[in-house]
């Protein structure tokens, strides 16, 4: 969960999650994977699954008997952004506010 900024330095505007889907490697469909233990084990992610902070995302298959990333030269994937605005009863909405959120995507070569 990543923040979308604050109003009056105290009230959260909202938050967002990231997701990956419709991935292809070398022009062929490939499964999106997730690891909770820094890449020791992997599971197949469901379509439109949320990419949780602190987890690794990868792309691969289970051809070796267990889900694992595979070498890829050309990858294409949709990056999904699921935004949520906080309940308006807790926000002062008398003027316009800019959404201010950022996330860093880090590439690891396994």
Would you mind describing this structure in some detail?
The protein is mainly β and 110 residues long. It is 0% helix and 44% strand. It is built from no helices and eleven strands. The protein has strands at 2-3, 6-7, 11-12, 14-25, 28-29, 31-35, 43-44, 50-51, 56-61, 68-69, 75-85. The strands form three sheets. Strands 1, 4, 5, 8 and 11 form a five-stranded antiparallel sheet that branches. Strands 7-6-9-10 form a four-stranded antiparallel sheet, with no helix packed on it. Strands 2-3 form a two-stranded antiparallel sheet. β2 and β3 (11-12) form a beta hairpin. The protein is elongated and about 55 Å long.
Blueprint (SSEs and pairs):
Layout: E1 2-3, E2 6-7, E3 11-12, E4 14-25, E5 28-29, E6 31-35, E7 43-44, E8 50-51, E9 56-61, E10 68-69, E11 75-85
Antiparallel strand pairs: 1-4, 2-3, 4-5, 4-8, 4-11, 6-7, 6-9, 9-10
Q: From the helix content, strand content and strand pairing, which structural class follows?
A: mainly beta
**Total helical segments:** 0
User: How far apart are the first and last residues' alpha carbons, in Å?
Assistant: 25 Å
Shape: elongated
> Over the alpha carbons, how many angstroms does the gyration radius reach?
18 Å
Helical content class: under 10%
The succession of helices and strands, N to C, reads EEEEEEEEEEE
Largest sheet: 5 strands, antiparallel
Compute the number of strand runs.
Answer: 11
Mean pLDDT: 91
Q: Into which percentage range does the β-strand content fall?
A: 35-45%
Low-confidence stretches: none
């Amino acid at each position: 969960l990543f923040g979308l900024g604050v109003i009056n330095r105290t009230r959260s505007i909202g938050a967002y999650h990231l997701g990956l889907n419709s991935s292809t490697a070398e022009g062929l469909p490939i499964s999106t994977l997730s690891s909770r233990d820094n890449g020791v084990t992997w599971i197949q992610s469901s379509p439109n699954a949320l990419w949780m902070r602190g987890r690794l995302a990868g792309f691969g298959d289970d051809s070796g008997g267990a889900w694992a990333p595979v070498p890829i030269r050309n990858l294409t994937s949709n990056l999904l952004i699921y935004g949520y605005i906080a309940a308006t009863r807790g926000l002062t909405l008398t003027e316009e506010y800019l959404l201010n959120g950022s996330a860093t995507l880090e590439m690891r070569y396994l």
